[in-house]
């Protein structure tokens, strides 16, 4: 039996030079209970990464064979995203 494959759109911690851990790095994450719930439904899940602008890989290369995508909720959009 092949398990359905579900991509999880990541939540972000934007670069923060004052953060004591992973200083200055953008972090992508999935909330653990969401992944656990997907696994409990016999779904194989994986985090969908972001791609650098110069990547030869496209988003379609990553999600093209997925059976579904979960969009996580989150905090308000950072003003740094839009100036």
- What portion of residues belong to β-strands? 15-25%
Through-space gap between termini: 48 Å
Main beta sheet strand tally, sense and closure: 3 strands, parallel
Q: What general form does the structure show? A: globular
- Discrete helix count: 2
Q: Low-confidence parts, pLDDT < 50 over ≥5 residues?
A: none
Helix content: 10-25%
* Average pLDDT rating: 89
Rounded Rg: 15 Å
Structural class: alpha/beta
Give a quick set of tags describing it.
three-stranded parallel sheet; alpha/beta; 83 residues
Describe the structure.
The chain has 83 residues and is an alpha/beta fold. The chain is built from 2 helices and 5 strands; from the N terminus they run βββαβαβ. A 3-stranded parallel sheet has the order 4-1-5, covered by helices on one side. A two-stranded antiparallel ribbon has the order 2-3.
